[in-house]
């Protein structure tokens, strides 16, 4: 996480990102991107800090990338949520005052939500036993948070290991269980913009959606309202469990969730091989007209590119515009880019999220 914070330069930095995205998409005759800005400060809902000890006293520390020897000691972090900033020093003071909480504590991780919930993980270089529970529970109640203790091979959960986020998309509220250690979008405000854009781009459909890399169902939930049925796929077991819970929390009954990797989805849909995990699921009953992908930074593999080129529409969210452009070299042989967007998830860094809607030619 970058320590850079220069709100006076935000507009110029965002303009540079827009120019970079336009240059990458220019070979594909893409329209100008719709740009979704971030809040200038307090936009990041997650943060983790190493502790740096001077004269036996712990301090929150961050480091410039590639340099772990020169700490930047901090008491506040303007890019982090107001809730994180409010919790930082009371938590550290409590750990200083109680040797059971503070002994060999080396890292603190915060997960907060737009809905006002917070989960804090304390990481130790020592085993934790029952003596840790009582002071930790007292601290959790004092701060109004969920608290988890971690050490090597150990996770002590006092109450729950998750928070519940509430996101509003197109006037509807969605609940998301966010599990400690699981992936969540760090910028909740921009995430709502992404979900709203994807739903608007999807439009209203009488056929079905195939979603690859669904994670905890971040996009699955709102997109399910735009299609008759959805088949959503994800490989990570923890994400699948979270997605299942999120479907339950929101009473969604038109989504079929399958634990498959993207290459396995290709094999299943093309009939190359059967999967036990698909028992009871009639793939022939789906009429997929749109495919939604939100792949990792490496982009889509050749087999997945070959699979999705046969769909009428492709909705592609990318965390790496370079690999998006690389994938478009293949996809624009069969499709044209009709919409694109820039989502400034990571202000004050060079990273950006982007989205494109492609329609078959």
TrEMBL record:
Keywords tagged on the record: Methyltransferase, S-adenosyl-L-methionine, Transferase, tRNA processing
Gene3D superfamilies to which the protein is assigned, alphabetical: 2.40.50.1070, Vaccinia Virus protein VP39 (3.40.50.150)
Active site: 319, 353
Annotated GO biological process: tRNA methylation
Alphabetical list of SUPFAM superfamilies matching this protein: S-adenosyl-L-methionine-dependent methyltransferases
One Pfam family matching this protein: tRNA_U5-meth_tr
GO terms of molecular function: rRNA binding; tRNA (uracil(54)-C5)-methyltransferase activity, S-adenosyl methionine-dependent; tRNA binding
An annotated GO cellular component: cytosol
Superkingdom assignment: Bacteria
Binding site for S-adenosyl-L-methionine: 185, 213, 218, 234, 294
InterPro entries recorded: MeTrfase_TrmA_AS, MeTrfase_TrmA_CS, SAM-dependent_MTases_sf, TrmA_MeTrfase, U5_MeTrfase_fam
Signal peptide: none
Reaction catalyzed: uridine(54) in tRNA + S-adenosyl-L-methionine = 5-methyluridine(54) in tRNA + S-adenosyl-L-homocysteine + H(+); uridine(341) in tmRNA + S-adenosyl-L-methionine = 5-methyluridine(341) in tmRNA + S-adenosyl-L-homocysteine + H(+)
Keyword Cell division among record annotations: no
Sequence similarity: Belongs to the class I-like SAM-binding methyltransferase superfamily. RNA M5U methyltransferase family. TrmA subfamily.
Function description: Dual-specificity methyltransferase that catalyzes the formation of 5-methyluridine at position 54 (m5U54) in all tRNAs, and that of position 341 (m5U341) in tmRNA (transfer-mRNA).
Protein name per its UniProtKB record: tRNA/tmRNA (uracil-C(5))-methyltransferase
Organism, as annotated: Halopseudomonas pachastrellae
């Amino acid at each position: 996480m970058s320590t850079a914070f220069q709100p006076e330069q935000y507009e110029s930095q965002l303009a540079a990102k827009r120019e970079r995205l336009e240059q990458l998409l220019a070979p594909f005759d893409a329209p100008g991107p719709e740009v979704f800005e971030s809040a200038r400060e307090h936009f990041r809902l997650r943060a983790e800090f190493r502790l740096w000890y001077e004269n036996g006293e712990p301090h929150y520390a961050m480091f410039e990338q590639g340099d772990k020897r020169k700490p930047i000691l901090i008491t506040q972090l303007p890019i982090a949520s107001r809730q994180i900033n409010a919790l930082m020093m009371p938590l550290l003071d409590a750990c200083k005052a109680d040797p059971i909480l503070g002994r060999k504590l080396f890292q603190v991780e915060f997960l907060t939500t737009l809905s006002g919930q917070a989960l804090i993980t304390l990481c130790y270089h020592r085993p934790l036993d029952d003596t840790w529970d009582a002071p930790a529970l007292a601290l959790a109640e004092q701060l109004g948070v969920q608290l988890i203790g971690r050490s090597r091979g150990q996770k002590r959960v006092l109450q729950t290991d998750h928070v519940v986020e509430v996101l509003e998309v197109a006037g509807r509220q969605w609940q998301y269980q966010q599990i400690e250690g699981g992936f969540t979008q760090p910028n909740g405000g921009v995430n709502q913009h992404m979900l709203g854009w994807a739903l608007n781009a999807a439009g209203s459909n009488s056929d079905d959606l195939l979603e690859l890399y669904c994670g905890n169902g971040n996009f699955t939930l709102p997109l399910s309202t735009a299609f008759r049925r959805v088949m959503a796929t994800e490989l990570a077991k923890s994400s699948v469990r979270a997605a299942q819970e999120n479907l339950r929390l929101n009473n969604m009954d038109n989504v079929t969730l399958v634990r498959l990797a993207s290459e396995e989805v290709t094999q299943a849909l093309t009939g190359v091989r059967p999967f036990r995990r698909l028992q009871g699921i009639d793939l022939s009953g789906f009429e997929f007209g749109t495919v939604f992908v939100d792949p990792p930074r490496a982009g889509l593999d050749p087999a997945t590119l070959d699979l999705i080129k046969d769909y009428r529409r492709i909705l592609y969210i990318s965390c790496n515009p370079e690999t998006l452009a690389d994938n478009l070299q293949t996809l624009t042989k069969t499709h044209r880019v009709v919409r694109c967007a820039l989502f400034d998830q990571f202000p004050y860094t060079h990273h950006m999220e982007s989205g494109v809607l492609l329609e078959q030619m």
